[in-house]
C-alpha cells in the first residue's frame, strides 16, 4: 500500500514540476477519451446501420405491396373499362333499334295521313344526308316533305337542330311544304311546348 501511495505522490509531483511529463499525461488522458469517443461513435453507427437496414427492408416490403395493389387496381380498371365498353355497345344497339322502330311508326302514320288526303308518296329515306347534316327520316310526297328527328329523350337543343335541317330541306325542295317532326318515347312537356311554339310537330309513342 505504501509503495502505491509513494508512486502516486511521485506522479503528482512530476505533474506539478515537470511540464513535459504533465503534457504527456494530459495527452495520454485525452487520447483515451478520444478512443472512447470513437468506440462510442462506432457503436452508434452500427446501431444506426441496423436501424437503417430495418427501415430499408420495410420500405422494400411496402413497395412490393404497393406494386401488388397497383396491379389489382389495374386489373379492376381494365375489367370495368371492358364492362363499360360492353354497356356502351348495348346502349348503342338499343338506341339504334329504338330509332328504327320509332321511324317505322312515324312512317306508317305519315303514309296514313298522305293517303287520307290523297297525296302520293314519292320516296322516303332513313339517315338521309342533307349537305353535311344527317336527317333521321326524310319523307318526300307530292306537295310536302317531312323532316323527322328521332330521339328517345329529346332535349331543347334537338329542336334547334331539327329546324336547321328543315331549312336545308326547304332549299332543296322549293315549292313543297316542309314539316319538321320531333318523335320519340320520352318527350318532356317543356320540350314538347318549346317545339310546338317553334312550329315543330311533336309525336310521342
Keywords:
five-stranded mixed beta sheet; alpha/beta; Trna Endonuclease, Chain: A, domain 1; 4 helices; 205 residues; single chain; 19% strand
Q: Number of DSSP strands?
A: 5
Give the strand order of the largest sheet, numbering strands 1, 2, ... along the chain. Answer: 1-2-3-4-5
Instruction: Quote the beta fraction.
Output: 15-25%
- Specify the CATH architecture of the domain at 104-204: 3-Layer(aba) Sandwich
Continuous helix count: 4
Q: What is the rounded Rg?
A: 48 Å
Ranges where pLDDT stays below 50 over 5 or more residues in a row are: none
Distance between the termini: 124 Å
Alpha-beta content class: alpha/beta
- Helix/strand order, N-terminal first: HHEEEHEHE
User: Kindly state the mean pLDDT as a whole number?
Assistant: 84
Give a summary of the structure in a few sentences.
By secondary structure, the chain is an alpha/beta fold. The protein contains four helices and five strands, in the order H-H-E-E-E-H-E-H-E. Strands 1-2-3-4-5 form a five-stranded mixed β-sheet.
Structure description:
With 205 residues, this protein is α/β, with parallel strands linked by helices. The protein has a domain at 104-204: Trna Endonuclease, Chain: A, domain 1, CATH 3.40.1350.10. 68% of the residues lie in helices and 19% in strands. Helix 1 crosses helix 2. The model has no long low-confidence stretch (mean pLDDT 84).
Amino acid at each position: 500500500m505504501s509503495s502505491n501511495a509513494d508512486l502516486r505522490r511521485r506522479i503528482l509531483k512530476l505533474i506539478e514540476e515537470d511540464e513535459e511529463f504533465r503534457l504527456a499525461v494530459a495527452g495520454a488522458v485525452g487520447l483515451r477519451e478520444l478512443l472512447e469517443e470513437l468506440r462510442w461513435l462506432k457503436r452508434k453507427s452500427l446501431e444506426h446501420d441496423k436501424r437503417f437496414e430495418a427501415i430499408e427492408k420495410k420500405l422494400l416490403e411496402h413497395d412490393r405491396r404497393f406494386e401488388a395493389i397497383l396491379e389489382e387496381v389495374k386489373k379492376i380498371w381494365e375489367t370495368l373499362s371492358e364492362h363499360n365498353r360492353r354497356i356502351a355497345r348495348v346502349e348503342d344497339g338499343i338506341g339504334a333499334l329504338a330509332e328504327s322502330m320509332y321511324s317505322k311508326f312515324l312512317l306508317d302514320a305519315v303514309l296514313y295521313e298522305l293517303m287520307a288526303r290523297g297525296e302520293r308518296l314519292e320516296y322516303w329515306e332513313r339517315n338521309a344526308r342533307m349537305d353535311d347534316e344527317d336527317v333521321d327520316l326524310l319523307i318526300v310526297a307530292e306537295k310536302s316533305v317531312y323532316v323527322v328527328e328521332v330521339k328517345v329523350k329529346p332535349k331543347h337543343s334537338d329542336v334547334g337542330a331539327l329546324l336547321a335541317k328543315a331549312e336545308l330541306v326547304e332549299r332543296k325542295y322549293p315549292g313543297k311544304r316542309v314539316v319538321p317532326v320531333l318523335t320519340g318515347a320520352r318527350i318532356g312537356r317543356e320540350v314538347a311546348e318549346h317545339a310546338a311554339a317553334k312550329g315543330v310537330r311533336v309525336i310521342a309513342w
